[in-house]
Write a structure and sequence with these properties.
By secondary structure, this protein is an alpha+beta fold. The protein has three domains: about 60 residues; about 180 residues, no CATH class; about 150 residues, no CATH class. About 20% of the residues lie in helices and about 30% in strands. Strands 6, 7, 8, 9, 10, 12, 13, 15, 18 and 21 form a ten-stranded antiparallel beta sheet that branches. Strands 1-2-3-4-5-11 form a six-stranded antiparallel beta sheet. A three-stranded antiparallel beta sheet has the order 14-19-20, with no helix packed on it. The longest helix has 29 residues.
Amino acid sequence: MFSMQYHFPLLIFTIPTYKNLSLFNKLMEKNKSSTSKIIIIILLVIFVLFIFVRIIKQPTNNFSQPEQDITGEWVYPKTNSDNAVWGIGYGIGIGIPGSEWDYGPWGNGAPGRIQTYRIDTNGDIYLFNYIGVGILNKLQYDDPEMEKIQLYPENPSFLEELKQIQNTYSETDKEYIDFIDLTKNPPTQLSQAKTIQGNKMTLIFRHSQSEKNKAMIAMEITFDKTKPKEIEIELHNLLPKTHSEDLLHLDASWGNLGRIRELYLKNEIINANDLYSDEQLDSSCFYPIKKFEFNTLPISSDGSITIYAGNDEENYVGMQVHGGPEVPYGRDGQKFYQYWKKYPGTYTQSLSVIVNGRDNQFAGFKNACGSSSTNFLGGTSYENFDMFEDHWYEGQTFWFGYSYEKN
């Protein structure tokens, strides 16, 4: 488009130039005198100069302007009609899905998940996983129950107000119950769902209750410009005294979008194709959960633990869109790693990593097996890629991010 627009004036004005050359030849045959030749040449030069000036004075094409660079800038909805995306330019972003998932009473609900994105330097976003609170019972995911959990953006002051309520009322008091009830105390508007202080932006998402576990969770997510490709996720129980959290844990549940199949442990790389080569799919077309204990996890010199998962394809073609064609991950199509992290003092030796696997794209709980036409490139991929602690506790915190290198 740009090339055609730029060259279009040149085509218009060069056509008469060729006609004048033909006229020039005819005049040269009829006028043999040197004076006539000189006059004709001068006129022709003037005409060519006139065309040249007209071309260089063409107005600048807007498409030729460099795109705005938002590297390091905050990204968030300015109005309630903007995309529900928060993050850092050329860093990580999160969001809640669009209208096709809006079955919550306020139109901003998602089934217990936030989407995680890479945000490009010009603001383009690229989905690469889901993060949410899942239900894990004896190392078996309870998918139908997970689907019933809904997620809503909350006012940044919600947790502070909750502390005041907890200091005033018991969890069985009507005032307390009304405060945490989504029908009595609805979530906030998108444009008001964040607070920014210095290099940090914080959001709170509130989970609805599930039928099996009546607990209600608030997920506090913090962005830090000093770590632009990483988010901190802290979990809060809204009913800590009356409802157990043993069934709940934080998970990343769409690893096959990036076809992650290499898990980087302390002394080995576990490939999903090798891990599940002798395993059978269950009735939902998942390979069984595998757990890697604390002694298999790499501990860095500063005491932090980072578990990476990545794609093993030599000729990487990009992300695999659910039900769609291959789409490059970012403009350059670079391969990347996803990771879970725990900093010193935030974990015990119950910490582990759990994964499960799939061979084809997930087609929903009612048709989990999909079809052979949607098999993953390269074979089996990890679906869930989770860092896990045996017991949930108030303020439990994990860090999740992406990187182009394993640090």
